[in-house]
Amino acid sequence: MNMPLLYLNAELFHGAVIQACRWVIQQREALNAINIFPVADGDTGDNMASTASAIIHHAGKQATLSDVCQVIADASILGARGNSGMIFSQFFNGLIEESELPAELNTQQFAKMISRAAKSVRAAILNPVEGTILTVMDAWAKSLNQHAQTITDFKVLMEEIKQDVQVALQSTTEFLAVLKDAHVVDAGAKGFSLFVQGFAAFLSNPEALSSQSVQPTLFETAHSHDDDLTACGASPDLRYCTEAVVMGDALDKNQIKSAIGEYGDSVVITGNERLCRLHLHCNQPAKVFAALKPFGKIRYPKVDDMLRQYQTLHQRKYRIALVTDSGVNIPQVVADEYQIHFISLNVHWDEHDLLDKYSLDGNSFYDDLSAHAVYPTTSFPPPQLMDEKIRHLSRHFDDVLIISLAKALSGTHDALDQISKRYSNVHVINSCQVAGGQGLLLTYAAELIADGLSIEAVKEAVQRKIPKTKFFAVIDQIDALVRSGRVPKLAGKFVQFTGIKPIITLDEEGRGILCDKAFNETKALAKLINHVNQFITPENKMSNYCILHTGVANKARDFSILTTEAFGFEPAFIEPAATAIGLHAGCGSIAIAAMMD
Question: How far is residue 431's CA from residue 471's CA, in Å, rounded to a whole number?
Answer without folding.
Answer: 12
